[in-house]
Design a protein that fits this description.
Distance between the termini: 42 Å
Order of helices and strands: HHHHEEEEEH
Structural class: mainly alpha
Number of strands: 5
Radius of gyration: 24 Å
Largest sheet: 3 strands, antiparallel
Shape: elongated
Number of helices: 5
Length: about 170
């Protein structure tokens, strides 16, 4: 790992370790290695590595507001909902106006593409209500005034279905 820094990530070292474990297990199955002996790689520990490089970049509130102000609709509201709710992309795409109840969003479905809308969430915890803070409520109210109907909150202009965020 010291000689080849690109291999020093713990993920690569774990892959190498489990590959070696598998090789010895397979060798034992083929009687090329005594199966009664302990696999020499089984208890190998991967050393903790410290990450070097730039720290993780996150957007500040000022960054988010600047992005929203620079974008046109519906992109501005998509960024606002993403930033102020923490929803996944597929959850954002699947939001319908009926999911907004008072000051909470209820994630009921995911939309992977416009043709792949699933009436289920990724995890059980995903279905928990998401609070809509007053700042986000303002963006949603403004977006609602220009929205096309009562279906998806973010609608693709061509098909009238869930907006594919790849096309945003």
């Amino acid at each position: 790992a010291r000689e080849t820094p690109s291999l020093s990530s713990s993920i690569n070292l774990r892959h190498i370790k489990w590959f070696a474990v598998s090789v010895f297990n397979h060798a034992a199955q083929l009687d090329a290695f005594n199966p009664n002996l302990k696999n020499p790689f089984a208890d190998v520990e991967i050393p903790k590595t410290q990450r070097k490089g730039a720290p993780t970049r996150h957007a500040t509130l000022d960054d988010v507001v600047a992005m929203i102000n620079a974008l046109e609709e519906p992109a501005a509201t998509v960024v606002a909902v993403a930033a102020f709710s923490g929803l996944r992309k597929s959850e954002l795409q699947g939001l319908r106006w009926e999911d907004l109840k008072g000051n909470q969003l209820y994630v009921q479905r995911t939309a992977w593409r416009t043709t792949d809308v699933r009436e289920q969430t990724k995890t059980e915890a995903s279905a928990a209500p998401v609070p809509v803070i007053p700042q986000l409520a303002k963006y949603l109210e403004a977006h609602r005034r220009i929205s096309l109907g009562d279906g998806f909150i973010f609608v693709g202009a061509k098909m009238g279905e869930a907006l594919d965020l790849h096309n945003l």
